[in-house]
Design goal:
The chain has 15 helices and eight strands. By secondary structure, it is an alpha/beta fold. The longest helix has 23 residues. It is globular and about 60 Å long.
C-alpha cells in the first residue's frame, strides 16, 4: 500500500526504510530541503541517519500534501511539540479511509494530551494507532532484531500496522491499552535523564538500577490513575523501553543527563544537539500530570528541579535518598 511518513528525523527515516523494505510505496516528508535532496539523490539521510543506505522505494517530499495524498497509512514521527501543528496542516490531504499512526513519544505541554489524543483531535473520523517500544533508529535501519507495540482501540487498525511493519528483524505486537503504551514511551525519557545524571556524577550501577526500578513505579502509579493497566508497564512499551533508554549508548536523554551532571547548562546541552531530547519537555508535562492527578513522582520532581530550578544534581539525588522510609509496595 501507499504509506506516508511525516517527519524525517532518525526514527521517521528508519520506519520509512522499514516500510519500503516490506514492499510498500513510501513517501517521506521532510521539513529540511537538504534532507529531501539527500534522500532522493543518494538514498541516505545524511543529516539525521548518516551512513545508513535507505531502500530505493523511499521517496522524499518537501510538500506535505503531496506526501499524504493517496496514502492508506499515514505515520507521524515528528517531535512531540510540533505534532499538532503539522498534523493540522496535513489533515486536508489525508484520505477518508487512511489509518493514522503516531511514533512520536511525549505529552503535549499545554494540554497534557498524549500523542494519540492529539492526532485523534485532528483526525476525528480515523483510527489512530500508537507505535512504541525499545527501538533505536540506527539499530532498526541496520536490521538488528527489534520488538515494539502497536496500540489502538481499533483491533483492525492495530493489526494493519502490525502487518505493515513486521518482518524478519522487526516484530510488532498489538495492544489495546493506548494510554499505558503512550505514557510508557513518554515518561521513560524523564527517568533516562535521571539515570544519565547519576552516571555523570559517577554514582555507579546500584544507583542506576534503583532509578530504573523506582522510576518504573512512578510511571505505573501515574498510568494506573489515568486508566492504564499496570501490566502494560511490565511490557515492551514500559520496562523494555525504559531499560533501553536508561542504559543504551545511543540514548539522547541519558547522554543529556550525563552532560548536565558534568556541569553543562541545559541551554548549552540543547544547543549542541541536532536532534530533540524529548525528556526535557516531558519533564514539564509529567510534573504537571502528577500534580493534576495527585500522584507522587519524586524522581520526576528531582529532574525538574535540576533542569529548570538549577538545583545541584548531587543535592537533588541526595534528597531522593533522604525521603521518608516506607514499604516498597506503598503507592
Amino acid at each position: 500500500m501507499r504509506c506516508a511518513v511525516i517527519g524525517a528525523g532518525a526514527w521517521g527515516t528508519a520506519l520509512a526504510d522499514l516500510l519500503a523494505r516490506n514492499g510498500h510505496d513510501v513517501a517521506l516528508w521532510a521539513r529540511e530541503a537538504e534532507v529531501v535532496a539527500s534522500v532522493n539523490a543518494t538514498h541516505e539521510n545524511t543529516s539525521f541517519l548518516a551512513g545508513a543506505k535507505l531502500h530505493e522505494g523511499v521517496v522524499a517530499h518537501a510538500d506535505l500534501a503531496s506526501a499524504c495524498t493517496g496514502a492508506a497509512l499515514v505515520l507521524f514521527a515528528t517531535p512531540s511539540h510540533v505534532l499538532r501543528s503539522i498534523a493540522r496542516s496535513a489533515a486536508p490531504a489525508v484520505g477518508a479511509g487512511a489509518t493514522i499512526v503516531v511514533a512520536s513519544k511525549g505529552v503535549e505541554r499545554d494540554t497534557l494530551a498524549v500523542m494519540s489524543d492529539v492526532l485523534a483531535e485532528q483526525f476525528p473520523s480515523h483510527a489512530v494507532v500508537a507505535l512504541s517500544g525499545p527501538s533505536f533508529a540506527a539499530e532498526v535501519v541496520a536490521r538488528q532484531p527489534t520488538a515494539v507495540v502497536a496500540a489502538s482501540t481499533s483491533a483492525e487498525a492495530a493489526t494493519l500496522v502490525q502487518r505493515a511493519l513486521s518482518g524478519d528483524e522487526f516484530r510488532v505486537y498489538t495492544h489495546d491499552d493506548v494510554m499505558g503504551v503512550e505514557l510508557g514511551g513518554a515518561l521513560k525519557n524523564v527517568i533516562a535523564v535521571a539515570t544519565g545524571i547519576a552516571e555523570g556524577l559517577g554514582m555507579g550501577f546500584n544507583a542506576r538500577a534503583a532509578l530504573i526500578t523506582r522510576g518504573l513505579a512512578e510511571m505505573t502509579r501515574l498510568g494506573v490513575k489515568m486508566g492504564a493497566s499496570p501490566l502494560t508497564f511490565a511490557g515492551l512499551a514500559g520496562m523494555g523501553d525504559l531499560v533501553l533508554t536508561c542504559t543504551g549508548a545511543l540514548s539522547r536523554n541519558r547522554s543529556l543527563g550525563v552532560e548536565i551532571a558534568r556541569g553543562v547548562s541545559l541551554d548549552e546541552a540543547l544547543a549542541q544537539r541536532h536532534t530533540v531530547a524529548e525528556g526535557v519537555m516531558t519533564t514539564h508535562s509529567a510534573r504537571a500530570l502528577a500534580a493534576r492527578e495527585g500522584i507522587e513522582m519524586p524522581i520526576v520532581s528531582a529532574v525538574y528541579r535540576i533542569l529548570f530550578e538549577h538545583q545541584p544534581p548531587r543535592a537533588a539525588i541526595g534528597e531522593l535518598m533522604r525521603r521518608e522510609l516506607r514499604a516498597e509496595g506503598d503507592t
